[in-house]
């Protein structure tokens, strides 16, 4: 049968992979050293990694349905969860390989294989963190500072510098990588390694937290101002005036984006205790279990937020995000003078008057 054929190919892949690293593998049997810790790490990994895959596949399938509805570039409200799903999928693949090897051999990889594997993993981890930090800053600048960042087609201006920086940092620390009990990472042989890791984690989480708090506060203030204006002014015909940097559509999209950033913050907070334990010598099995659970709860949390934002429907909510797309798209990010026409904006929103630092949107 077809399923039996694929199962045999899977077993063959495992055997090839095992023989490839057998000459370099460590001979320390972690099950004999700490059976409870070893089983805890393996069991938690085999429970939460599949759950993470389910969350990622759920989001990718739903986003595909949303894209197939109009077959055009994804809005910011969908691009962010799409990027997160791709990054989380990469993490899950790395974890599946690491945990599968650990369960079969009762030890982590070693030698050159471990160093190369750790280099790729560290580069991917840095890329993931810096991308989310960049999205946080972009959202903060748009909502709180009324500045639109042009990230180029397919957001290459965001991805390319981050990718180059991540690869450079990971490769420059190649000699410090090796087996760290249950997986391959930077060895805490010197005080600089754990301190650098702690500082990187704290800086990224601090940036994301600051942007999250300030953006949510700004959104609440804008909504209060809009409510006050609506109560005092009312609605006259088809015209209305709102004194806020962004309109109601952008507020909804920004809230969606910040929800995913909140999940990222919660996802990586347990990395701090792990780095601290590495700084003082050796992390216990419970620390590894906590990291495994938190990282894999990221895709699950993102899937939950996606349902909260877009609903259970295959094609999601009917909220029109074209206004947000227009001001974040390259063709509509510059306003040079008063009463300027903004290309690709909604047909019923033609002009923007800049007065006293606020946008007055006139609807025809």
TrEMBL record:
The chain crosses the membrane at residues 39-65, 77-97, 117-144, 156-174, 180-213, 257-273, 285-307. It comes from Gigaspora margarita. It comes from the Eukaryota. This is Putative g-protein coupled receptor 21. Residues 1-23 form the signal peptide. InterPro entries: GPCR_Rhodpsn_7TM. Keywords: Membrane, Receptor, Signal, Transmembrane, Transmembrane helix. Residues 55-306 form the G-protein coupled receptors family 1 profile domain.
């Amino acid at each position: 049968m077809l399923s039996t054929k694929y199962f045999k190919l899977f077993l063959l892949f495992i055997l090839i992979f095992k023989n490839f690293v057998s000459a370099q593998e460590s001979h320390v049997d972690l099950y004999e050293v700490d059976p409870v810790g070893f089983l805890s790490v393996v069991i938690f990994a085999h429970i939460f990694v599949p759950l993470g895959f389910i969350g990622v596949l759920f989001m990718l399938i739903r986003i595909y349905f949303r894209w197939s509805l109009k077959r055009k570039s994804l809005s910011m409200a969908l691009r962010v969860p799409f990027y997160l799903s791709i990054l989380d999928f990469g993490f899950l693949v790395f974890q599946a390989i690491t945990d599968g090897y650990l369960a079969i051999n009762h030890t982590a990889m070693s030698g050159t294989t471990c160093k190369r594997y750790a280099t790729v993993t560290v580069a991917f981890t840095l890329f993931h963190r810096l991308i989310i930090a960049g999205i946080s800053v972009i959202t903060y600048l748009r909502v709180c500072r009324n500045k639109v960042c042009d990230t180029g087609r397919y957001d290459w201006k965001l991805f390319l510098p981050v990718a180059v920086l991540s690869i450079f940092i990971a490769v420059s620390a190649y000699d410090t990588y090796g087996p760290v009990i249950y997986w391959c990472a930077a060895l805490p042989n010197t005080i600089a390694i754990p301190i650098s890791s702690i500082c990187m984690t704290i800086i990224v989480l601090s940036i994301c937290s600051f942007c999250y708090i300030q953006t949510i506060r700004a959104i609440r203030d804008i909504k209060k101002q809009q409510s006050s204006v609506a109560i005092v002014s009312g609605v006259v015909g088809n015209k209305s005036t709102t004194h806020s940097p962004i309109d109601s559509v952008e507020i909804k999209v920004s809230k969606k984006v910040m929800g995913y950033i909140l999940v990222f913050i919660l996802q990586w907070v347990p990395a701090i205790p792990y780095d601290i334990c590495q700084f003082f010598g050796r992390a216990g099995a419970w620390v590894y279990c906590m990291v495994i659970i938190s990282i894999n709860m990221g895709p699950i949390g993102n899937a939950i937020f996606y349902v909260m934002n877009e609903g259970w429907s295959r094609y999601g909510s009917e909220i029109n995000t074209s206004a947000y797309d227009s001001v974040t798209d390259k063709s509509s990010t510059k306003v040079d003078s008063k009463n300027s026409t903004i290309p690709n904006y909604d047909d019923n929103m033609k002009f923007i008057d800049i007065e006293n630092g606020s946008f007055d949107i006139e609807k025809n």
